[in-house]
Amino acid sequence: MILVTGATGFVGRHLVARLLAADYPVRLLLPEHKLRNLPWDTPPPIVTGTVLDEEALYKAVTGVHTVIHLENAQWWGRARDLERIEVEGTRNLIAAARAARIGRIIALSHLGAAPSSAYTLLRNKGLVEEAIRASGLAYTIIRTGVIYGPDDSFINHIAMQLAANPLFFLMPGRGEVVLHPLYIDDMVEVLIRTLELIETVDTVQEIGGAEYVTLEDLLRTVMRVSGMYRAIIPTPPYLLRWATAIWTRILPRSLITAQWLDLLATNRAARLGNIITTFGLQPRRFEDTLLTYMPTRHYGLLLWQRSLRRRPRGV
Questions:
Q1: Is there a smaller number of Cβ atoms within 10 Å at the N or the C end of the chain?
Q2: Residues 103 and 132 both lie in one domain
């Protein structure tokens, strides 16, 4: 039995669909407010509760061999949400998993994660990694670059920002930061193969897509594919963080959050051959995958739908 936390998130909903299609025995841990409008035609068994609910956690891990831990607050949460849901929630999960004697925890993290990081998102991810490594349980931690796809909250938010301003785009810094974008289908395939690869047990795997790309080149690629050409204006990151703090108090849900900027704060790249060597997977190229869905999307409409949507509730 495989337990998936954060199953309705970007990676989670794609992963669960693949697990169900491959007939893996799956169980989900979901809070009650996420049980409406589930993204699967035939949902797997669900334990109602959160990673902060010890009773629900013990029920969820009973009879489970592997936990795929995806619960996070990185796209919408403030610093206190990250600490509660990611750090405290992971520690609760570890306690329940040890009591139930599960086989392994598979967790997603970020390239650049470290407990000593100056950036909130990367620091909390580092604390999560530290807790898992010290848990006494078998584990696999997968550090990734930016994960993107038709329903992501990173590349699509860039396109929505372009739609919001027909003249220019405020680029954090000078665009020299190196990113390593990974397509969602490749990310899910890595997680599926991790279940069977014994050599990934008790390791931290760093993976990314088929190529490195600087932030400026990424922006120009999105403009070229979407047809929304704008002047790029390098902007000090601290000014964008101040503006973000204001936007998050005005809009129900801001396109840019502090965590969004954390992902662009430092170079975040793995060795190019890692995903091929370890997982036997040839990842897809960034622009090739954007061309399969971005030219037909109406980002102006998506901008209003996303910005006026109520802020997600903490688990």
A1: N
A2: yes
